[in-house]
Amino acid sequence: MRSIRVLGALAVVTLTGTFALGLGLPATFEQRTYSRMVALHPPLAWTAYVAFGITAAASILYLIPRTRRPRWDAIASASAELGVLFTGLTLITGSLWGRPTWGVWWTWDARLTTTALMLVIYLGYLAQRSIADTASARAMRSAIIGAMAVVVVPINHMAVEWWRTLHQGRSLASLKPGSTLDGDFIAAMLLGFVAMTLSYVWLLVLRTKVIEADNELEAHALTAAIAARRREAVAQ
Amino acid sequence: MSGYVVACYAVTIASLAGYAGWVVRRYLAVGRRVTPDESAS
Amino acid sequence: MFRDAALIAGKDLRIERRSRVTTQQIAPFALLVLVLFAFALDPDRGVLGRAAAGLYWLAVVFCTVLAVQRSATVEVTDRAGEGLRLAGLDPGGVFLGKAVAVGAQLLVLEALLTIGIAFFYGTKLHEPMLLLATALLATIGLAAAGTAYAAVAAGLRVGTTLLPLLLLPVLAPVLLAATRAWEAGLAGVPGDAVSWLELLAAFAVLYIAVGVVGYGTLQEES
Asked: Which of A85, A234, C30, C76 is the most exposed place for a label (fewest CB within 10 A)?
């Protein structure tokens, strides 16, 4: 339990550092102060991909009978939730950057479109998790859907990538921050990567424990209710 | 500083802090709920 | 496996012939969608003609959701699917059979919708072979992915509202690829469609493989 606290403290410290460093970045000629968002947006996007990768891996581990543990289901669920949070923040910060830079909140750039599709896919995953069902059926179903993402996300990505490159020539990717950055920016962004990853791991551990405890309580409550009913029946 | 930058940081900080706060509170509540001998089993 | 597939496909199509859900409910719905698009996009401004390929495939995708939902419901009702499992049918074969039956129904709907866009939107069907090839590949993919996901959502109390959310993002590449291929065909530049046909073929192969391998697990779960 101490290690969790240490992890949390590290996450908070590095995050605070990232915010301070990011907000203190100098204004650049072509980006003005918008370049300050570089400390947040790429690290958020990276963490979102890590989170969904972990969900897929945990789902596959649950599907394989030899490695099937309830814990993989809890991890997959917790990671999907965090992935949705980070993907949502990626899209929001991205559009807050795109509006002053490109002049639009949204553009049908390949990366944006894939990210939006990915968000919807995992919203569906979370939606089916919240359906009342037996724990094992829910875990199995979630594992199947979570593992399917290994097929779904790449093929969606490929389709969207072809669509945008075949039709619009160069994508806007070259306009993204990150192409011409010097020391301060790279430092802030790297710290951002560390901070977001640490925050993700910390929150993943906590959330997994909460989910496991909830599942336990659910099972416990059911057993207790059955026992109570049985006592009632015997007493009559 | 541009309002967009402020909004970007504000949304990120608020969301992460909000989610972390919620999870930590749940985590502490769960710790109280599970008694020591139960968690040992 | 293929013998089981033929059995199941025959069974599903027989159920369909007698219940007439596709012909009496989904087919009129498909035509209705074409008419509704005309209300949404003013026909006088020429948008309908230019968007015909996209509207066509969007209508097909909507019909897919309905068709696979129906196909999965048949197995949940009266626990018929469990009977199939107890009968010792190969799960991969059951999947293939159900996908083939859905695919056959989709092809009928697509033929109807093709007449629909030619009639309502005045679309000239250039390059019919390309259009047909696209439709075949897309249908295989739609039927395979749809059958797999419908099996996941079937039997859940809120499965009917869940399925579109789960399935439509998965079908997005088919909508994209089939629309682009048809646009190329309708515009008379079939060369542009080649890479889209490749994508459709890859999609179909991938989801058939996933379904054949995974369908057994899907059935166990419920």
From this structure: A234
* Strand, helix or coil for residue A93: helix
Q: Do chains C and B touch (3 or more CB pairs under 8 A)?
A: no
Rounded distance between C-alpha atoms, residue C137 and residue C174, angstroms:
9
d(C-alpha C116, C-alpha C27), whole Å: 11
For residue A44, give its domain range.
2-235
Q: Alpha helices of A27-134 — where are they, by DSSP H?
A: 41-63, 70-102, 110-129
C36 CA to chain A: closest CA distance, Å? 26
Q: How many domains does the structure of chain A reveal?
A: 1
Tell me which residue range forms the domain holding C209. Answer: 2-221
Residues in chain B within 8 Å Cβ distance of A32: 2
Cβ of B16 within 8 Å of Cβ of A199? The answer is yes
CA pair distance A64, A46, nearest whole angstrom: 27
What is the ipTM metric for this complex?
A: 0.85
* Tens-digit pLDDT profile for residues C60-104: 999 999 999 999 888 887 777 777 877 778 888 899 999 999 999
Q: What is the 3-state secondary structure (H, E, C) of A25-38?
A: CCCECCCEHHHHHH
